[in-house]
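Record passed on underneath.
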Amino acid sequence: MAGIGYPIAEVSDEGGLVITKHEGTGGMVTVETVAEQLLYEMGRPDHYITPDCIVDFTSIKIAQDGVDRVRVSSVKGSMPTETLKVSISYLAGYKATGQLVVSGPDALAKARLCAQVVWDRLAMSGCHFDDTHEECLGVGVVHEGIVPPAENAPEVVLRLGVKDVDRAKVDRFGKEIAPLVTSGPPGVTGFAGGRPKAQEIVAYWPALIDRKLVRSEVSVVEVGS
């Protein structure tokens, strides 16, 4: 895994396609791995929108073409949409996250108590946030609802987060985490880089524009020329 390769697409002038990787690198390129990758963010397999065309993958053929070489064929395409997708970024306030390790008997209960202390102290100081987040890592939160929670975990990581347009309130949140190490329940220790610091939130907004407003340019670099 330390030297795993990255997929390469060899595209011929006629439109043929072979997926491969650099020789001597780890991993494997097989029919199974290529087929699995096709499922990534696919949406509708018969209507996959790209800037150049709308792709129909329902007729695709995948075949092994040697070691770590897979040939892909019979993919259909139709005319592109009249619009192009634009990814817009904008500043949307501030955020901060803090983490504590809580260990020993009743670790989960103590972690939840620590979280409540933080929220109560912030409310006492008049800090109410646009959004908050609370989770205890190590007790099944990643697969919540799929696997039973580990109620008797010997240690958990308490993770708290806030979001707000007022940076002063987010900074105040960062000052309420560390005191729990000395004034909270037994078995609490700091984790992950000290006091939380406010960070700007760069939010994402997708939009559509008329493709006539965009001019496409292609640069071809020939090796050895």
Summary: The first strand starts at residue 8 and ends at 11. The helical segments are 31-37, 107-124, 167-174, 180-183. The two ends are 35 Å apart (CA to CA).
